[in-house]
Structure formats: C-alpha cells, structure tokens
Amino acid sequence: MQLMQMSGKEFVNKILSGERDFCKIRLVGYHLSNQEVKELEDYLKKQDLQNNPITIEFSEFLGFSAENLYFPYTNGGAASFIDSDLKGAYLLGADFFKGKFKNVKLKGANLQGADFQEVDLYCVNFQGACLQKVNFIGAKLEEVDLRCVNGLEEAIGLALASYSNVKVTEKERKIVEERYNRALLINWWLPGP
C-alpha cells in the first residue's frame, strides 16, 4: 500500500485549517511542541469530533511524540504507531481496530471507550492509563505494561485477548484471570447445537 509522506508541521497545519482526512499518510520522527499540542487542543475542543472525527486509517506514525495530545474519537483503523510517545494523550472513544502499536508510551493516557479489537500491542506502556470500556477482543498483548491502570475491571474482551510477558501487579492479574475464568464458565455452560 502506497503511503503519502507528510511532515509533522504539515499535519498540524492541515488539522488547524479544518482538514480531517489523513488516511494512508506516513509521518516520521516528529515531536509536537507543547505549544502545538495546546494549539491543537484549543482548536479541537471547539469541533464536533464525535460526528466529524480525525481519520488516520491505514497511516503510519513512526517516532511520533505528542505528549498530552487531544485526539478524542479518532478513526484510526489499521493505523500503526511505532516508537511513539503519547503519554497523557486524550484518546476517548478512539478506534484503532486492527492497528499496530509497537514501543509506544501511553502512560497516563485517557483511552476510555477506545477500540483496540484485533490490535497488535507490543512493548506498550499503559501504566496509569484509563482503560475503562476499552475493547480488547482479539487483541494481542505482548510485553505490555498494565501496572496501575485505571478501569481495567470495566475493559471489554479481556478473556478474548492473548497475552505474553505482560507486566501486572497482583490487582491487574486477578482482574484478567477473573474475566478469563468467567468466560470459560460461560462457554462451558452454553448449550450445544
């Protein structure tokens, strides 16, 4: 698939001028300054992003740094974030269905209601993030840090995700195991054809 190269400055300027469609772009090695993050937040808070979201489907963000980024309801199906820093990002209701996150910092991010169905999550730091109502059905969590996350007990599909070398405290381990064991019981008791 051919991706259009875009600079970080161009990405920010296009958003601020009202553009919403950033499908199939490739953004490499850009650090949003605190001023750019604030400018985007001020602008985007005045927009109806729930009905007119920023769309980054099939796009790649490599070495992208945007701490405290305000991007709620982002439509990011099959988007990739690699070696990126999104600490403290506000990604409420964002859709990353079938996306890829590799070496990404989401520490302290608000991901409430986000869709991570069938997303490959490798070396992702979710420490302190809000995972309330996040959908993990079919997600692959490998070397992910779930320590001290908030709302894990309300996450969706924990029993239907796969795990490998996930970092958790006793609290998170119990939540995941409880969901998994409950799913086993439900499947065991379901009547056959």
Looking at the overall shape, the CATH architecture is: 3 Solenoid
Q: Estimate percent helicity.
A: 10-25%
CATH topology: Pectate Lyase C-like
Biggest sheet: strands side by side, in what order? 1-2-3-4-5-6-7-8
Give me the count of strands. Answer: 8
**Rg, nearest Å:** 17 Å
- Uncertain runs with pLDDT below 50, 5 residues or more? 185-192
- How many separate helices? 3
Mean pLDDT, rounded to whole units? Answer: 93
* Strand/helix succession: EHEHEEEEEEH
Task: Provide tags for this entry.
21% helix, disordered C terminus, Pectate Lyase C-like, 193 residues, 8 strands, globular, alpha/beta, 3 helices
Q: What can you tell me about this protein's structure?
A:
This protein has 193 residues and is an alpha/beta fold. The protein has one domain: Pectate Lyase C-like (3 Solenoid), CATH 2.160.20. 21% of the residues lie in helices and 17% in strands. It has helices at 8-16, 34-44, 170-189; strands at 4-5, 25-28, 60-62, 80-85, 100-105, 120-125, 140-142, 162-164. An eight-stranded parallel sheet has the order 1-2-3-4-5-6-7-8, with no helix packed on it. The chain is globular, with a radius of gyration of 17 Å. The protein starts with a strand and ends with a helix. Residues 185-192 have low confidence and may be disordered.
